[in-house]
Amino acid sequence: MPTAKRIILLGATGSIGSNTLEIIQRFPQDFQLVGISADKNSQALAEIAKTFQVSSIALSNESAYQEAIQTKQFSEQSKIYSGDQALHQLIEATEADMLVVAIVGAQALSPTLKAIEKGLDIALANKELLVLGGSFVTQAIKENNVRLLPIDSEHNAIFQCLHGNNKKDLKSIILTASGGGCRDTPIDQLQDITPQEAKQHPNWSMGAKITIDSATMANKGLELIEARWLFNLEPHQLKVTLHPESIVHSFVQWIDGSVLAQLSPPSMTFSIQHCLFYPEKRESPKPSIDFDQCFSLNFAPPDPKRYPCLELAYQALKQEPYGGAIYNAANEIAVQRFIAEEIRFTDIPKIIEYALNHIQIPKTLSLDSLLQIDQATRDYALQLDPKKL
After folding, report:
1. Helix axes 15-26, 269-277, angle to 10 degrees
2. CA count, 13 A, side-chain hemisphere, 308
3. At what angle do helices 347-358 and 323-339 cross, to 10 degrees?
4. Can you give the pLDDT at residue 124?
5. What CA–CA distance (Å, rounded) separates 211 from 218?
6. Contact 161, 227 (CB under 8 A)
7. Burial letters for 278-315: b for 16+ Cβ neighbours within 10 Å, e otherwise?
8. Is 130 left (phi over 0), alpha (psi -120 to 50) or beta?
9. Domains of the chain, earliest start first
10. Which of 175, 165, 176 shows the shortest CA–CA distance to 256?
11. Backbone dihedral angles phi then psi of residue 256, each to the nearest 5 degrees
């Protein structure tokens, strides 16, 4: 009987984490959850630990950790790591086969590199990881001979379409985009969009930040940069099309004119299951597309006036190796400020553009310099007054 694959799940209480847990629970003979993490949601993490009998736990937020200890939320057998080094300690101390990266932001970079050094396969649902440190991650993957498997539905679609084909025959990839919750709002009214309105997505159930990124299409910009590193592509090979139904997750176009597409319902369980079982397949717990029913698929080029963040991603690609780090950090801060109602919806791309044009770029590349650029961009974006840009 084959041994169950041992999995560490970073971001167990989020939407990707919840979908991953659903699959692990569905296939108990195939997977064993051996480590979990969350930032603040200690009660939900304690429930997961109890349900899946996990004793290796990371709770990054120190206040949440102290409260969890005082209220005895976890069993006495649990080993709980806290603070800035919690994820590192969890990975270092836990024997596993795969790391599922379901946390958002640049905080994922360092612990993921640690997992790669330990020889763990990486199932990646974090755009910022490759946007910030793509050259370091891809080099570490190569040196340690591990797999980097994309969970994001768009990149997972490309991964599947490329399988078994000769990459030298590739002409371009086309990422599909729903257009987000504001795709039908008149352009002259976008400046009045509220955080609550931007957090409503027509197709997907996601966290606040990524849903707002979908509305500005900064998420698609991040995915373009991520795809550049995942598949070693040039900027001119990266394209985007609007697809409101979110059924086709990406296209791959070949030099002979043929186009391959990957289709599935708008649920992350399909791409997560593909990564967890790769290279094998199992029957999905959720129904797929029913071709006995009528449905239509629509595509259109994105309007650059509605989605300026998309064009800024191409600018960031031209400013590599630091462009992606600046784009990501400026966007994260701009979204935080928008949620706090400090800036307007249409100020988000302004802050990204200003940061790309004004942040000082170091002459040499290192992991430290990337992290310094990341922090410098955040500090800079916090201080910018959009009214003066």
Report:
1. 60
2. 14
3. 150
4. 97
5. 10
6. no
7. beeeeebeeeeeeeeeeeeeeeeebeeebbbbbbbbeb
8. alpha
9. 5-150 (3.40.50.720), 155-266+290-388 (1.10.1740.10)
10. 165
11. -85, 5
Both tokens assigned to 161: 């379409």
DSSP state at residue 126: -
Instruction: Using alpha carbons, select from 309, 361, 366, 363 the residue that is nearest to residue 335.
Output: 309
Radius of gyration of the chain measured on its C-alpha atoms: 21
pLDDT tens for 24-63 read: 999 999 999 999 999 999 999 999 999 999 999 999 999 9
Q: What's the Cα-to-Cα distance from 81 to each of 61, 78, 112, 126, 164, rounded to whole Å?
A: 10, 10, 16, 22, 42
30: burial class by Cβ within 10 Å (0-12, 13-18, 19+)? middle
- Which residue, among 173, 192, 207, has the nearest Cα to 17 in the 3D structure? 207
Using CA atoms of 336, 339, 340, 346 in order, give the dihedral in degrees to the nearest 10: 90
Long-range contacts of 1-5 (CB under 8 A, 24+ apart): 1/29, 2/30, 4/28, 4/29, 4/30, 4/31, 4/32, 5/30, 5/31, 5/32, 5/97, 5/98, 5/276
38 bridge partner residues: 59
Q: Which amino acid is at 22?
A: E
What would the pLDDT profile of 237-268 be if each residue is shown by its tens digit? Answer: 999 999 999 999 999 999 999 999 999 998 89
Q: Say how far apart CA 335 and CA 101 lie, in whole Å.
A: 22
Peptide bond into 266 cis (omega under 30): no
Q: Report the relative pairing of strands 170-177 and 56-59 from DSSP bridges.
A: unpaired
CA–CA separation, 218 vs 238, rounded Å?
15
Relative to beta strand 56-59, strand 79-82 is parallel
Answer whether 0.85 is exceeded by the pTM: yes
What does the block give as tokens for 280?
């094998």
If we measure between CA atoms, which residue out of 83, 64, 84 comes closest to residue 74? Answer: 64
Q: Which tokens is 273 given?
A: 């299951």
| Average pLDDT of span 307-336 | 95
pLDDT score recorded for residue 208: 79
Largest Cα separation within the chain, whole Å, is 66
* Closest-CA residue to 96 (of 72, 66, 82, 116): 116
Residues 101 and 125: beta-carbon distance below 8 Å: yes
Q: How far apart are the C-alpha atoms of 183 and 180, rounded to whole Å? A: 6
Q: In whole angstroms, what separates CA 230 from the centre of its chain?
A: 13
